# Entry
Amino acid sequence: MASSSSSSSSGGGSSSSPSSSASGYLFGLVWLGAAAYASYFFLEQAYRIRLQAIDEFGPVIHEFDPYFNYRATEYLYEHGAKKFLTWFDYKVWYPLGRPVGSTIYPGMQFTAVFLKNHIVGDRMSLNDVCCYMPAWFGALASLLIGLLAYECSLPQNSNMTLFGVLVDAMKGRYTDDKTAASRSSGGSAGRRIFGLSSPAVECGVFACGIMAVVPAHIMRSVGGGYDNESVAVSAMSLTYLLWIRSLRSGDDKSWIYGLLGGVAYFYMVAAWGGYVFVLNLVGVHALALVLVGRFGKKVYLSYSLFYAVGTALAVQVPVVGWAPLKSIEQLGPCVVFLGYQVLYLCEVIRKKRRLSRADAWKLRIRVGLIAAIAGIVLVMLFVPSGYFGPISSRVRGLFVKHTKTGNPLVDSVAEHQPASSQAYFQYLHHLCTLAPIGFLIVVFQFGDGPSFLLVYGVTAYFFSHKMVRLILLTGPIASALGGIAVGRIFAWAIGQLWGGGDEGET
# Structure
């Protein structure tokens, strides 16, 4: 009798009646098919929506800046990279002329020529490639934001709460990857179907779909609108995705993605001057991880590789030069990088000497003071020589009242005015409601990677509120947060309807 009872109990605990197993397998097939079809549908619509101008008027470059970019691309295609980088165009800004090759961000031009020479060949003209590129990269950006939302919703990455992490930080506790992985295998882990995680997949699919249609992104990725932002948003999204991937819990080798993130950041630098925002955002997030007690070997390696590789490559772009190490608005991430080296040195000493918490803090304070004094001395030596460049007028316009930056050209541009609530609704629409819900969900489904969404959300809102043009930067984060909100609610509803919310693996 006991044996029978034990056998029955064992069978019930392993989920394993044939009908239950078959039902779960059928659910998995339907779920996987629906997710795959929805992803394909959203990406197709992302592409088709952006082709409306081309479908109506043909492959025509429109607006002034896109045509200037096309002319530069044409020169690069006909004369090669060496002549392009030393090209002085006497026809623009006449009679002064302009050294085009060394004063523009050439990433988009090089991308177009690469696609023409190595991908499409004679099947498309260079003009057509430039016209279609915004639509191609618009669909790519939608996919990347979907992957970013998926990464931030994985159980092992979102098994803490912000308040719990802050309490642990105040008590000097650190949740390592093994503990985080064990938490994700508990009751809040969700469901795994054919190796994929639910509700992470739902969050990714909906984020992809939202990014496909959000006006904040469409306005800079319409076919024929051959401008830097059309490529840069994809480069920016890829950089964020790889940075977050480098912080994945339970993966001891994930820091290698920090190196890849540095390479993606280099492409972002080559494509658009907005790379300054990307660099500072990652730097602020790295600092935030320290402040909430999440600094560890993986975080150290990820950020150190990201910054070292990204900066080493960024200075190779002619228009950038040594700005990452001289421009005031780019020195913050450099300070964080140096601080990471100091912190990691203290951690190595602490473990080697087996110091107590109090002694470890004394060590950090001593080493930190020495490093700070050395830094101040170096700054005092370099400042009189004019080594550090001033804050650019556009960045200055983010912190002083509009029309008072001191630069008449910047002050006269309408898109540099502060954003209004009407502008947010025009470019984000229902994401004005969904994104804050997603923000709150991330607060309670917290982790090293998802914390980036909180930092990004607050930062993007602050700067877009100062300058309406920067609402472009809110498109990716609003789509990711909105996708997380809709995806988690949708996954919960499907779970209730199909299997009562049971968790497990199919």
Q: What stands out?
A: DSSP finds 24 helices and three strands in the chain. The radius of gyration is 25 Å. Residues 1-16 have pLDDT under 50 and may be disordered. Residues 217 and 487 are 20 Å apart (CA to CA).
